[in-house]
Amino acid sequence: MRPNRCDNSGPNCLEVAVDPDGNRVLRNSKRPEITIKIDPREWSTFVESVRAGQTF
Q1: Start and end of every DUF397 domain (predicted)?
Q2: Hey, what long-range contacts does 32-37 have (CB within 8 A, 24 or more apart)?
Q3: What gap in Å lies between CA 56 and CA 53, rounded to an integer?
Q4: What is the pTM of this model?
Q5: Domain-embedded: residue 56
Q6: pLDDT tens digits, one per residue of 17-40
Q7: Residue 11 domain-assigned?
């Protein structure tokens, strides 16, 4: 995994990878043992929501 975007104030990064099935796998660089897997449909819905200005 590689950081998708990092803050310059420290080593905390959200890392995003794509597995062979197209799922997005996310983890915090400070807690790499914990991952979240998101299927392609859910990822697309999330990205569309963010682009539309929805906040979480």
Answers
A1: 2-51
A2: 32/1
A3: 10
A4: 0.68
A5: no
A6: 999 999 999 998 888 899 999 999
A7: yes
